[in-house]
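Sorry, explain these tokens?

***
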Amino acid sequence: MKVYVPIAKEGYPFIFLGGVVSVIACLWGEAISIVPFSMVLFLIYFFRDPERIIPEEDKGIISPADGKVISIDEHFENRFLKEKVVKISIFMSLWDVHINRIPLDGKITDVLYKAGKFFAAFTDKASNLNEHNAILLKTGDHRYILLIQIAGIIARRIVCRIKTGDEVTRGQKFGMICFGSRVEIYLPSDTQLKIKVGEHVKGGETILGDLP
């Protein structure tokens, strides 16, 4: 039985370029082509876009990314929400799926990109200083969730396919960050959490918590 795993469209240029380099290297000798060919295999692996089974719980907040939960904090968010929230930081290593997904049904009320530094994504200063893209989501029951895509020391491209005014659904793919990064999600303070620091979560499948 064959298993087909789609590749994110953002990966095609990288894979094509790697393929061209591999062919050129092969003309010089098979041994030389091993490195670029290995890189092509890595790129195919990195840009994989596997299907996910979206949980049926209506108020279950789905993880927006694959990766390790590196912090869970009570936090006063003063840029968009202007209120006390629960902030969850998810670090995506090079080996994690990098597709980002919508945590709950709702409407996008704001999308704001900000240029910045490229510190290692797992460090605290990356949250405030790194290049990032902030997405504000209003749910059907008028609650607000903030998502922030944060570039890392290697990541130099944030992809966001949604815009202000878009209606979105739980588990919907909305973008990715290329080559190691971090996603933060800010939830209402009364969210009943179901995950803990150190846990590995899956975007589109793991439920982070429930809204009351």
